[in-house]
Amino acid sequence: MPTREQRHAGRTRRTRRWTSWIPEALVALVVVAAIGNAELDLGHRWLGLDRATPGTDPARVLPPEGLDLTAGPAAAPVALPQAPGRIDPAAVRKALAPYVADPDLGKHVSIAVSEVATGKIVLRRGASAVTPASTMKLLTSVAALEKLGPMTRFSTRVVGAGNRIVLVGGGDPFLAGSTKRARGQYPARADIGTLARRTAAALKAQQVSKVTLGYDDSLFSGPGLNPRWPATYLPENVAPPISALWIDQGVVDGRYVANPAEVAANAFATALRRSGITVVGAPRQRTAPAAAAELAKVESAPVGEIVQQTLAVSDNNAAEVLSHQVGLAVSGDGSFLGGAAGVVEVLQGLKIDTAGSRIYDGSGLSRQTLLTPGILLGVLQAAASTEHPELREALTGLPVAGFTGSLQSRFDKGPADALGRVRAKTGTLTGVRGLAGLATDLDGNLMAFVLITDRVPVEDQLAAQHDLDLMAGALGSCHCGP
């Protein structure tokens, strides 16, 4: 029979065998916990630990071991914050005096400057109404933001039943002809390839593999080409027919086509075939049945982003689409006439004086459109008002002098202080040069300005444009307060 010492020794050996693996188990648990925390962020989720990441708190992310980072010198501010004040009319007149009488401007010039804070006009001289060219896009943009809202998107849809489907245009100005063409664009583009893949997936889910295709561009009405435009605009590749259904704004091989909706439908049919759906025959124009079920859709960028791009690069086609959309929203009339009337009605609702102005399109391509300086100043002041935050993209989309958009390569001569202090929409037609926008002077005073000349001899057009840059630059580089 074992002695007490032998029994004790046996228990000790068993205890040691049982406890000998505890250190290894603890190490294993630590490793598993570390992996779980790294993969699943358990410390942050379960224990409330605040783990700094480059995405959540980049300032607290420690550098890799062995990397010695030294603090760089503090950068000087580009511009000190200043509170806008009152504008002195005499100071504005003095700033512009060297340029307003330059004969290169021609004989029909309109100049106006207002104090944004109060709306008071501090300088007004010249013509009472002028051909605005692309400064007209300011009116269209403000009306679109106000009536449609900056977050509204336009849908391109496919509807149908059984093996009959219809591609329905929703008035997306930037719908791309392929996923590849949409990639990397601003604003983000919907594309016909994605729509085809989604449609094919929906059809296959219904066990449909063969379809006939129609296309519906009836959202917009009236002529595709504005009767107030010269008849040469399409053959000279100035503008396409405005359509509720197009891809790449109706451009094929660098030229505008006469039938953008048909071209879009054919491209969609090709993309459907690549996605495994047989399309019987050629697409045909037809109105989608009201009760047809939706199979798939893609959506445009928000209106606010469309406005920004339209103003930045002076996109005539997008401006016309926006104008048609305003007409639809105001009266159900998505045409050139409906759009023009809709823009006027929306601006009047914003308490902007439209008297003396005549509007025939949304882009300013029509030479018959005439605007007063007052209506242009009115839309600028409304967009800058704290009462209308929904209009802000009409300002943020404006090109910045010497830096962005259609002003990127301008303002290279003149006062350097004006660079970055002037934001303005350009206007350019043969014989017409214009700028309308905002200038912040050296004391932080904010002015709206309109500078347009519309009877410039051909040989003086570049000189006139330079004069307008110098005038806007003079406002941005002056001390125009009292």
Automatic annotation (TrEMBL):
Signal peptide start and end residues? none
Output one GO BP term: peptidoglycan metabolic process
Q: Which UniProt keywords apply?
A: Carboxypeptidase, Hydrolase, Membrane, Protease, Transmembrane, Transmembrane helix
Instruction: Look up the EC number in the record and give it.
Output: 3.4.16.4
GO MF term list: serine-type D-Ala-D-Ala carboxypeptidase activity
Q: Which NCBIfam families match?
A: PBP4
What family is this?
A: Belongs to the peptidase S13 family.
**The name this protein goes by in its record:** D-alanyl-D-alanine carboxypeptidase/D-alanyl-D-alanine-endopeptidase
Gene it is expressed from: dacB
